[in-house]
Amino acid sequence: MTFIITVYIKNLQMKLNLSSTIKIVIALLFFLCLADMPYGYYQFVRLSGLIGFAILAYQANQQGRQTEMIFYGGLALLFQPFFKIALGRKMWNIVDVVVGIGLLTSIFMEPKERQS
């Protein structure tokens, strides 16, 4: 029993590298968007999302993960603060929660090894 618990805990351990840190910070910012915050906070979140997703897209490109790169690039465009995309508060809350949960889930999922 102790062996199973130890193995389980080791599998859940994560390295807090740059991409994991970015994902955690962005997810927390998105979850805070559910609260009634001043408009400046939402602008900060959009700018942070743009920068964070751009870094994640760059890292995915460097590691040859093209699907992730396109996904993060699309999210960078969705959250960019320069040309506002009007989805309404409820829809943005849904997007924030779905993306936040996806980011946190992606920390624990290991990318598949590429076949040479």
Notes on the protein architecture:
With 116 residues, this protein is mostly helical. The chain has a domain at 34-109. 72% of the residues lie in helices and 0% in strands. α2 packs antiparallel against α3. The mean pLDDT is 81.
In short:
This protein has helices spanning 2-12, 18-32, 39-62, 66-79, 89-108. With 116 residues, it is mostly helical.
Helices and strands, with pairings:
Layout: H1 2-12, H2 18-32, H3 39-62, H4 66-79, H5 89-108
Helix pairs in contact: 2-3, 2-5, 3-4
Strand content: under 5%
Separation, N- and C-terminal Cα atoms: 39 Å
Q: Characterize the largest beta sheet: strand count, sense, and whether it forms a barrel.
A: none
Name the average pLDDT.
Answer: 81
Task: Tally the helices.
Answer: 5
What keywords describe this structure?
5 helices; mainly alpha; 72% helix; 116 residues
